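Backbone shape codes
____________________
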Amino acid sequence: PVEVGWRDAWLSSQARLSEDRKAAMQARNSLRLGAIRMARTALKNAAIEARRELDEATTIKVLSTLVKQRREAAEAYRATRPELADKEERELAVMKEFLPAPLSEVELEEMIAGAIAASGAGSMREMGAVMKLVTAQTTGRADGKLVSEMVRKQLAG
């Protein structure tokens, strides 16, 4: 992961994508440029679909979807096409740079405990309500599968 500097603190994800696209073109880094172009295209399509400019939360949601797609593609290719799996993982690393810092397990457990308390959930039947609260806070910062497992564990325990 790239260190977040002063520049990144005030630039939106879309602005950072634009700046990094220019830098990748100048550096002739085709893999990075391709990943950034893919992300910008997905964001443009989402904006067209929504018929408005995307806010930062929606941008992060779209980028999270792309990260998940790259991760799943890498897993699918791993057994038969390792070179494609490596390419997907390198693209995944580029896209992760534009997402907020991931949550630690401790932070995630605290969020889940707070969501369980807020929703009044006491059994697995109310998992959907808890997931709805937690997912709104963790989009782009934690893997949905991990969040689901942790919610399940806390509700069961």
